Amino acid sequence: MYYVKAPAKINLTLDVLHKRPDGYHEVEMIMTTVDLADRIGLEVREDGAIHILSVDRFVPNDHRNLAYQAAKILKEMYNVKLGVSIKIEKNIPVAAGLAGGSSDAAATLRGLNTIWNLGLTLDELAQVATKIGSDVAFCVYGGTALATGRGEKIQKLPSPANCWVILAKPTLGVSTADIYGNLKINDITHPNTEQMIQAIKKKDFELMCASVGNVLEDVTLKLYPEVAVLKEQMQKFGADAVLMSGSGPTVFGLVNQESRVQRVYNGLRGFCDEVYAVRLIGDRDTLA
Questions:
Q1: By CB count within 10 A, which of 26, 78, 212, 221 is most buried?
Q2: Where would I find the GHMP kinase N-terminal domain in this sequence (predicted)?
Q3: 9 has catalytic annotation
Q4: Which H or E element spans position 157?
């Protein structure tokens, strides 16, 4: 079995510019990878079938699974006769705003490119990824990037200042469609995306913390007060910057001093079962 790493992402910024004629929202967001990853195992099948194997009851084992969709689309586009068994070992929380499903799909594309001997470039795989979901193209590349359009146009950025990331996911599911549906475009306070880009390029941790912003956060916090409580607690326990990732419900804190990581982590464990202390990766080379 051939194994591929599928890291989670966080949004350092997430801005919505307007609603497009095709019904999607035009976004501008900076995403980066963190050291929390699913593990995808791939094994060639001679019968041409696509099988999903997972012990996680929240992971669908049929066409609803993005990794399944990735295999099916790649197979059809390049007329591949072989099939694949896809084993998904989940570490990233499901429906958390951390792109777990998208990262699984991206890892499947990268892995199948190898075991099916397709010889595609990352740019070609990213083109395939746009047919699966908005975050999948970013996840094909990994690292740190500015994503625009629906999220599928990717502009590489250097890795940000190194730091710890505390992730906390409350026990609730959030519908991304509902969050976008409740977003009032004219009432948005837009994050300073350009300032965040400068902070990343300068590896300026303080400026990075001052530049985080997510226009979906206010919507989710109003609909799910538990997320607001979690954010307040993370700030109280001493994280340097706190933000919701994606449409939620996961909240993350950036922490510069290792001595403070355990305090924030332990404090949050009293409010939330799913808490992780991980490093910010932010570099594409870690997918190799």
A1: 212
A2: 65-143
A3: yes
A4: strand 153-157
